[in-house]
Amino acid sequence: MKLQPSLRPPLQPWMGMPWVEAWNLPWPVTSEWQSTLAGGTQRLPRCLGVALAKELIFTGRRLSGMQAQALGLVNHAVAQNKEGDAAYHRARELAQEILPQAPIAVRLGKVAIDRGMEVDIASGMAIEGICYAQNIPTRDRLEGMAAFREKRPPRFVGE
User: Which residues, if any, are the signal sequence (predicted)?
Assistant: First the structure.
């Protein structure tokens, strides 16, 4: 059997991203005689559980952005605007919320979450401890503590 390439971007690769915006993309799977490549058979069960992952993959059911959000596959579902860039604008809004945070702490938090999900919880806690230890000597940590004491917004510099 020859595998046909998808005519639209598959959702599966996005499941590994830090956050996901949906705008009613279909879930391309077996109903189109496509392979569920791009990690869908591995990522989907980890997100939804084995039974629901099998149901979605075996039936080829398409999910709207709202359904994907309700299942926890995406963080936000946005209605498309006339310009076709509603998800882009929502992603920018989210980025604007992240930007004022301490960049080193954000990066280390991402590492702790991503690596911690690959191991058992005890190992994940150890990874978190290692990441925290890397944050202790930073100027940003000291700035955050000073800003808290002085009741002012912090001014992080990424050091």
Answer: none
Six-digit token string for 105: 């702490």
pTM for this structure? 0.67
- Enclosing H/E stretch for 45: helix 40-48
> pLDDT tens, 33-62?
455 556 778 888 888 899 998 888 888 888
- Domain definitions of the chain by residue range: 12-98, 103-150
Distance CA 106, CA 98 (A): 8
Both structure tokens of 55: 């149901």
What are the two backbone dihedrals, phi and then psi, of residue 138, each rounded to the nearest 5 degrees? -80, 150
